[in-house]
Write a structure and sequence with these properties.
The protein is of the alpha/beta class. Helices cover 34% and strands 26% of the residues. Strands 1, 2, 3, 4, 5, 6 and 7 form a 7-stranded mixed sheet that branches.
Length: 195
C-alpha cells in the first residue's frame, strides 16, 4: 500500500493504540499521536454504525480542540460482534478469560470504524473481518492471559502478538482486525470522487 504513504506522508493518529501506530509507521507514514479521551458510550445495536459513529465522535472532539489543523487526522474504533452482543475491551482478567473461552472454535465479526480529516474534508466508514478461533483449552487461554496482551484489546486478544496462536484463520482485511481498515481507507482516498 505504498500509495497510502504518498497520500498521507504525515498524520495525527487520535488514538492511544500502539498497534494502529505501528501499522502506519510500517507503511512509512510519520505519525503523531493524540488521545481524545472521548466518551465511548452509545446506544447503537449495529456494530458497523457504532464504530463509525464513535470514530466520528473522536474526530469531532479532536477538531473542537484543534480547529485550524492542516495535517490529516485519523480516528478509529473497534468492536466485536459475537453471539448477538457487541464486545469491547475486558474490564479485568476474569472477563478476558470468559471472552476467550466463549470464542473457542467459533467465528466472530471484528468491526473497525474510521474517520479521517483530509484536506479540509471528513471521510469515514467501517469495515468487517471474520476471525475464526482454534479450539482453546484452559491451559492455552491461561498461557495467553499471562502475556498481558488482553489488556485494552477488544475481545481480549491482539492478532499482531501472541494472540496469533489462538487464531485459525481470518476472512477479510487483517488490518481491520488490528483496528485500522487500510484497504478501505486507501480505496476511498485514491478514488476519483475524493479529489
Amino acid at each position: 500500500m505504498p500509495e497510502l504513504a504518498n497520500l498521507l506522508p504525515k498524520i495525527t493518529l487520535a488514538s492511544q493504540s500502539v498497534a494502529r501506530k505501528a501499522l502506519l509507521l510500517s507503511l512509512g507514514i510519520e505519525v503523531t499521536t493524540y488521545a481524545t479521551h472521548c466518551d465511548e458510550s452509545h446506544q447503537e445495536a449495529d456494530p458497523a454504525r457504532a464504530v463509525a459513529l464513535l470514530s466520528e465522535r473522536k474526530l469531532d472532539a479532536f477538531l473542537a480542540v484543534h480547529p485550524d489543523t492542516s495535517d490529516p487526522v485519523l480516528c478509529c474504533d473497534t468492536l466485536i460482534a459475537f453471539g448477538g452482543e457487541l464486545i469491547g475491551k475486558p474490564s479485568d482478567c476474569n472477563e478476558a478469560r470468559n471472552q476467550l473461552a466463549s470464542f473457542s472454535g467459533k467465528a466472530q465479526e471484528v468491526h473497525s470504524g474510521w474517520a479521517l480529516w483530509y484536506h479540509g474534508r471528513k471521510y469515514g466508514g467501517s469495515d468487517k473481518a471474520l476471525v475464526w478461533f482454534k479450539s482453546l483449552d484452559a491451559h492455552l487461554i491461561e498461557k495467553y492471559l499471562e502475556t498481558g496482551e488482553w489488556k485494552g484489546a477488544a475481545g481480549s486478544y491482539r492478532i499482531q502478538g501472541e494472540g496469533r496462536t489462538l487464531i485459525d484463520h481470518i476472512e477479510g482485511d487483517e488490518a481491520t482486525v488490528i483496528g485500522l481498515p487500510l484497504l478501505q481507507i486507501s480505496e476511498i482516498l485514491t478514488s476519483p470522487l475524493s479529489e
